[in-house]
Amino acid sequence: MDSTINEVAEKFTITGNWDEQSKNLKRRFSELTDADLVFEKGEENDLVNRLVAKLNRESNEIKSILRKGHVSLK
Hints:
By secondary structure, the protein is mainly alpha-helical. The chain is built from 4 helices and 2 strands.
């Protein structure tokens, strides 16, 4: 199956303590601001899109980074 189709079929969700995860992201990527890391449950795609633009990285790479910080696919 095409990976693009897989991505659409699986809903990307963030779980766990987002405050702690966002602090870790700010330590790892000093260019990130609090505004870049604003997150509301169900709005994961907005967060990913902001990080793609700010960090100049691919969506899949951003999701991989986020997964390492207690993010899950549901």
